Amino acid sequence: MNMRSSKDHDTASSRANPSAFWLNIAEIELSALTRQSLDRRIDDLDVLNTGLAAWQKATNADQQQVNWQFTTDDARIKLRPLYRVH
Q1: Nearest 5 degrees, angle CA 40-CA 46-CA 48?
Q2: What is the pTM of this model?
Q3: Domain presence at residue 2
């Protein structure tokens, strides 16, 4: 998963609630964990914990960051139909 940070864009998340920002990151991490490590049935808790620890160590060592590519301008265009002006 390549998620390099880009500070060149005014991202939609830059003005968003900080809790929402971290929630998005948590959802991305859980999705990656599910695809990379939890894509099979694991019957043994020790096997699960060992696999999770290995995934966490590798993920933390990789030091990837989120690359938010959905800019504020993109969000305004994409979400315009959802927000009607009264």
Answers
A1: 30
A2: 0.52
A3: no
Q: Which domain holds residue 23?
A: 12-59+68-82
Q: Which residues of the chain have pLDDT under 70?
A: 1-20, 85-86
pLDDT of residue 36: 86
- Residue 12 CB neighbour total at 10 angstroms: 19
**Segment 31-37 long-range contacts (CB within 8 Å, at least 24 positions apart):** 32/1, 32/59
Q: Determine, yes or no, domain membership for 4.
A: no
Asked if residue 17 is part of any domain, the answer here is yes
